[in-house]
Amino acid sequence: MLEARSTIVVPGAERLFDLLCEHFAEHGEVRRRDDRGEVSFGYGTAVMAARPDALHVEVAAANPIHLSYLKIGIAEHLLEFHEGEAPAIAWIGDGLAPGTPLPWFRELTVAGVEDLTPHMRRVRLRGEDLAHFAQGGYHVYLLFPPKDRAPVWPVMGETGLPVWPQGDDALTRRVYTIRSIDVARGELAIDIVTHAGEATPGSDFARSARPGDIVGITGPGGGEAPDARRLVLAGDDTALPAIARILEDLPPDAEASVILEVDGPADAIALPSRARTDIRFHYRWGAEPGTLGRLPEALRSLDWDRLGPDVFVWAACEFADFKAIRRYLRQERGLPRDRHMAASYWRRGRAGG
């Protein structure tokens, strides 16, 4: 087991301790007693202790990547919750040295592109040593370097956080789902929604990608198939790749009701699964995504008595629909948090894609 520790001198350590415990309770198991808390994740543990003028943290994991994930989680959220000048964070013990390339990063080149629908393009990417991306979740960051410049990639920093290139070398990051991966061939596929508009680097990349183009990738993390035998999966175009992966990974004894909102019949891709599925596409017919409320409406119309109390609901979509879905699941249906996952994949009016 690898271990590291840090004593972070910071005013308001007790408040930060409370906020960190509250946040991590959404992602792991928190056992708290007075000013000491232990958080257990699937890949390691973090122990935090609040002192009058400092927060002491100890992390432990089985490998350097998971140890780094714990350091990042602590440092990133402490800096987010802290008000004022950023405190100094330094780690003692095991881990990657500052300046080391990120072990969860790979440089990839475009191997090919394919139009799946009028609004979805598959980009096949090739790289070395991709076994790391075949487990631990579906989601990854694609890193787009600036045009006409040699890419500068991130490295480890002293705080435990990656150090990202700045200025003219700054990278653009977007989250995507690995649609498929072939470790032996060194190839993976990403399905990207294409759309018009400004500040759409992912869509721009997918539309202009040519064999040999360079892109970075980090991850994976999050988005695995829920551990349930009866599921409801709901999403818009942006959730199609994740829903497709989930359906492919479900066992034969599972049952899934699938609700999808896309523009029209040409966007209704095939979704094979070993599980029993009821797949229903709802069409916008040219309306702007995220404006019709079709997904929350369709969820309300389900036969919840037939679905039963053990159903797991997975939903991902535009922010307004996400809010309506989460409110319905939690407040009206009373689903406990361990029986649903609702996420906003994008938000109208904000830079994305």
How would you sum up this structure, described in words?
Residues 103-227 form the FAD-binding FR-type domain. One of its GO terms (molecular function) is oxidoreductase activity. The protein is an alpha+beta fold. It has 3 domains: 2-81, Alpha-D-phosphohexomutase, C-terminal domain (TATA-Binding Protein); 100-221, Beta Barrel (Elongation Factor Tu (Ef-tu), domain 3), CATH 2.40.30; 230-346, 3-Layer(aba) Sandwich (Rossmann fold). It has 7 helices and 19 strands. Strand 15, helix 4 and strand 16 form a beta-alpha-beta unit. It is globular. 34% of the residues are buried. The mean pLDDT is 93.
The helix/strand order is: EHEEEEHEEEEEEEEHEEHEEHHEHE
* Whole-number count of domains: 3
Sheet with the most strands: spatial strand order? 2-3-4-5-1-6
**Could you say which overall geometry the principal axes of the C-alpha atoms support?**
globular
- CATH-wise, what's the superfamily of the largest domain? Translation factors
Gap between N and C termini, in Å? 39 Å
The CATH topology of the largest domain corresponds to Elongation Factor Tu (Ef-tu), domain 3
| Oligomeric category | single chain
Strand content: 35-45%
**Structural class of the helices, strands and pairings?**
alpha+beta
Task: Report the biggest beta sheet as strand number plus sense, adding barrel if it closes.
Answer: 6 strands, antiparallel
**Measured on Cα atoms, how large is the radius of gyration?**
21 Å
CATH architecture descriptor of the largest domain = Beta Barrel
| Continuous helix count | 7
Unreliable residue runs: none
Number of strands: 19
Helix content: 10-25%
CATH class of the largest domain: Mainly Beta
Mean pLDDT: 93
Family: Belongs to the SIP oxidoreductase family.
Pfam families: DUF2218, FAD_binding_9, SIP
Protein name: NADPH-dependent ferric siderophore reductase, contains FAD-binding and SIP domains
GO molecular function, one term: oxidoreductase activity
